[in-house]
Amino acid sequence: MGMEINATVVVQIFNFFGAYFLLKTLFFKPAVKILQQEQEEKDHLTTVITNREDGLRQTADEKKLAWKGFQHQFEQAAPLVNESCIHDITVQPIKEKQPLTDEQIDTLAHQVCKKVVKKVSNVQE
Questions:
Q1: What's the pLDDT tens digit per position in 37-87?
Q2: Is 93 inside any structural domain?
Q3: 17 lies in a domain?
Q4: Considering the domain boundaries, does residue 87 fall inside one?
């Protein structure tokens, strides 16, 4: 039982290699090129993000150092508070306001009405 090679097998071999060549040149090369470009872009963005994170960390460290310096300067320049001064401070209670009488409300309403009419008449002129 030997294997016979007939025309069908030869045609299938040519079809296979033809399909392989077409797929390789028309599909796989552009697809691989696109994937490589995306990977390069991803790597570039990762590098940019890492650099910015490092810059932010450095800025945060500089701000912490400056803050400590400001605290130190404040501690040196802060005035000393005498405890006797604190005890001398008195807090006065807020006085409750008396409600307006009907007469006061009418007077105020009349005055507001006059002022509004005066303002409106100035605008119309």
A1: 999 999 999 999 999 999 999 999 999 999 999 999 988 887 776 666 666
A2: no
A3: yes
A4: no
- Say which residues have a Cβ less than 8 Å from residue 108's Cβ, sequence separation at least 6: 100
Q: Which residues of 3-16 are buried (b: 16+ CB within 10 A; e: fewer)?
A: eeeeeeeeeeeeee
38/44 Cα distance (integer angstroms): 10
Q: Is the pLDDT of residue 1 over 70?
A: no
Residue 39 lies in a domain: yes
pLDDT, mean of residues 86-95: 71
What is the count of structural domains for the chain?
Answer: 1
> What Cα–Cα distance (Å) separates residue 13 from each residue in 8, 21, 86?
9, 12, 102
b/e map of 29-67 (b: 16 or more CB within 10 Å)?
eeeeeeeeeeeeeeeeeeeeeeeeeeeeeeeeeeeeeee
